[in-house]
Every structure is written in structure tokens, then in C-alpha cells.
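Students often ask why inverse folding is considered easier than folding. One informal answer: many sequences map to the same fold, so there is more than one right answer. In these notes we will look at a single instance of the problem. The structure comes first.
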């Protein structure tokens, strides 16, 4: 799987968030989009996964030498972000079952096995509204990690996680299938592997 960008740019009003971003992302590499808070990392990811339109430039996807239409890219990606909504009225098991009505579970795991992997088996019948911020984030990451996808987008993945949960995140990330492309927006080195290819978002901001 490849993602191609050419002169990709995004602005809000008169401010350029990033400008003239030309790059090729390819499987099975891991990329770290790095920069300080508010520098545009999340915006870049949202443009790359198709949630937000660029202001100018081109974005395309390719698999096995064939272009993937923009309207079909959702079938190939999985996303975890701190600002992503969960359905508060659902219990944990209802949320997991609902999610996997639209995604295929990676590694043929059962729903019950996933609850154990997420380290949330005792919260099976607890409503999401009563989850702590850390439990919510672990659930979001678990759903993303175990959705069968070619590209995994992670935005500040250890937000709200304690040390034990950060170790859990690293372990799961390190055992993803080798062919998975991973893009991580982060300003913390523990969130991405040492061999990740770094992309400095400030290098693509007008005026830097």
C-alpha cells in the first residue's frame, strides 16, 4: 500500500497549517509525524486519511499497482485518536460488537478474546459513559489495532494512559503484522519505535 502526496497544503483562513508537502508513504514502514503541540500534526493525518480536504495539492493511494479511489480508502485504514468519539450509551461489549460490524477482526480473534487483550474483561457490561479517560483510550487503541487494515493512523496514542497501559500499547504495536503501514502523530519519543522515519511538520509550515 502506498500514499502519494504532491504539494499537499492545508490552511485555515489565512494561516497555512502545512504547505507543499510532497512525500511517498509505503508499506510496511512506520512514520512519525513530529512537532510541538498545535503545529499541525493532527491536521496532516486527517487530510491523509481523507477526513479533511486539502486546500491545494494532490493526494492518492495505491495498492498492488492500482489506484484506490478516495471514496474507498476507509476500507483500508484504521484510526485511533484521543478526540475520536465512542458511543456513551453502549456497554463495552456492545461497542466492540458494533465496531466489528464494519471491520474485520485481525487474527481471527473472538469478541471475548479481544476484551481480555484490551485488559477490560471486568468492564464487559459497563457503559462507555462510565469509563475513565484511560479506559476509553485503551479501547480506541484496541479497536484500531485489531481491525484488519493496511494502514494504521495513531494520533498521540498514549494520551491519558498510565505507565502500565503505555507498556501494553508498545507491546501490541510491536506485534502488528509486518506488512502494516503505521503513521503516528506524536511529540513524545516513546510513542513511536526508534527506527520510525521522522517527518518534521514544521519543515512544511510557511515561514520556517
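Output (designed amino acids):
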Amino acid at each position: 500500500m502506498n500514499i502519494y502526496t504532491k504539494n499537499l497544503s492545508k490552511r485555515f483562513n489565512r494561516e497555512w497549517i502545512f504547505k507543499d508537502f510532497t512525500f511517498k508513504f509505503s508499506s510496511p514502514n512506520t512514520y512519525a509525524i513530529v512537532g510541538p503541540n498545535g503545529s499541525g500534526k493532527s491536521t496532516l493525518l486527517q487530510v491523509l486519511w481523507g477526513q479533511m480536504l486539502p486546500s491545494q495539492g494532490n493526494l492518492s493511494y495505491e495498492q498492488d499497482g492500482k489506484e484506490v479511489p478516495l471514496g474507498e480508502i476507509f476500507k483500508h485504514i484504521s484510526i485511533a485518536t484521543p478526540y475520536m468519539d465512542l458511543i456513551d450509551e453502549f456497554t463495552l461489549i456492545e461497542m466492540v460488537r458494533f465496531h466489528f460490524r464494519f471491520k474485520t477482526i485481525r487474527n481471527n480473534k473472538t469478541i471475548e478474546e479481544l476484551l481480555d487483550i484490551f485488559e477490560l474483561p471486568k468492564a464487559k457490561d459497563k457503559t462507555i459513559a462510565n469509563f475513565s479517560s484511560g479506559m476509553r483510550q485503551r479501547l480506541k487503541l484496541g479497536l484500531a489495532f485489531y481491525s484488519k487494515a493496511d494502514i494504521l493512523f495513531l494520533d498521540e496514542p498514549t494520551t491519558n494512559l498510565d505507565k502500565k497501559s503505555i507498556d501494553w500499547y508498545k507491546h501490541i504495536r510491536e506485534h502488528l503484522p509486518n506488512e502494516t503501514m503505521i503513521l503516528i502523530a506524536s511529540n513524545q519519543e516513546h510513542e513511536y519505535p526508534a527506527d520510525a522515519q521522522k517527518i518534521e511538520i514544521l519543515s512544511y509550515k510557511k515561514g520556517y
